[in-house]
């Protein structure tokens, strides 16, 4: 099956409620390629390696969580950025990115999908632009048990601040670089907070509040949303996809 690129983009914009978010990168089509989409490669980030994989896969669209043109990024098209854009353009590859809308989507989002793979029941979304998720484990576990589960599911050893024996039932989480929301999670009264990265200050906050902090990897925690989205496109429009699983330890 194929679909007109513009039709797919309009559909995705509605499905992901893009207009409800204030973001620091453009959501949707970022680089125009072929007018028809017959195959998709999805990836966490629109890196050169992901672009090359998409071309190798014969895809017409590279669908990512981390696209380009971040507010903090230089606006000129030189060096590594030139190489990425040139490579994609020569192949007629479309590039579309969905950032916060794909973090917060209640079903397809990175938060919802991470909760699912970790066996957390999603009870509510809260905080800035609904970017935090809150839920419960099916039964009380020790922090060590939760750590083991995260390590198994994400195939990556997390950094954990807390007493391995402490009991965990209520958990808040936010995928990616959301260590700055730890205080909101503490205020919500949870036993543990899971995110992708850690900075120096979270160590002390965890120690002094007794709320466990788990840094499970930015890339590792954000692998699931874009795959759920590609699967959703396949289900609704019959467009096949492949996931490019870049080995990024960060
Ligand atoms: Zn991210």
TrEMBL record:
<keyword id="KW-0479">Metal-binding</keyword>
<dbReference type="InterPro" id="IPR036069">
    <property type="entry name" value="DUF34/NIF3_sf"/>
</dbReference>
<protein>
    <submittedName>
        <fullName>Nif3-like dinuclear metal center hexameric protein</fullName>
    </submittedName>
</protein>
<dbReference type="InterPro" id="IPR002678">
    <property type="entry name" value="DUF34/NIF3"/>
</dbReference>
<dbReference type="Pfam" id="PF01784">
    <property type="entry name" value="DUF34_NIF3"/>
</dbReference>
<comment type="similarity">
    <text>Belongs to the GTP cyclohydrolase I type 2/NIF3 family.</text>
</comment>
């Amino acid at each position: 099956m194929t679909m007109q690129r513009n039709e797919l983009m309009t559909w995705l914009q509605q499905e992901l409620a893009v207009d409800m978010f204030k973001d620091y990168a453009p959501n949707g089509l970022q680089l125009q390629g072929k007018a028809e989409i017959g195959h998709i490669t999805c990836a966490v980030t629109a890196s050169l390696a992901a672009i090359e994989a998409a071309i190798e896969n014969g895809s017409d669209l590279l669908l990512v969580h981390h696209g380009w043109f971040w507010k903090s990024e230089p606006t000129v098209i030189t060096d590594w950025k030139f190489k990425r854009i040139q490579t994609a353009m020569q192949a007629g590859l479309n590039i579309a990115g969905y950032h916060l809308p794909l973090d917060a989507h209640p079903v397809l989002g990175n938060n919802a999908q991470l909760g699912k793979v970790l066996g957390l029941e999603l009870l509510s979304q809260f905080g800035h632009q609904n970017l935090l998720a809150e839920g419960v484990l099916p039964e009380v576990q020790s922090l060590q048990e939760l750590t083991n589960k995260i390590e198994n599911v994400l195939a990556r050893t997390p950094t954990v601040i807390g007493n391995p024996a402490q009991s965990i039932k209520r958990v808040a989480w936010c995928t990616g670089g959301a260590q700055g929301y730890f205080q909101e999670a503490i205020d919500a009264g949870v036993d543990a907070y899971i995110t992708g990265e850690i900075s120096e200050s979270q160590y002390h906050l965890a120690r002094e509040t007794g709320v466990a902090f788990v840094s499970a990897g930015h890339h590792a925690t954000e692998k699931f949303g874009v795959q759920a989205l590609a699967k959703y496109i396949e289900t609704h429009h019959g467009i096949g996809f492949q996931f490019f699983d870049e080995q990024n330890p960060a």
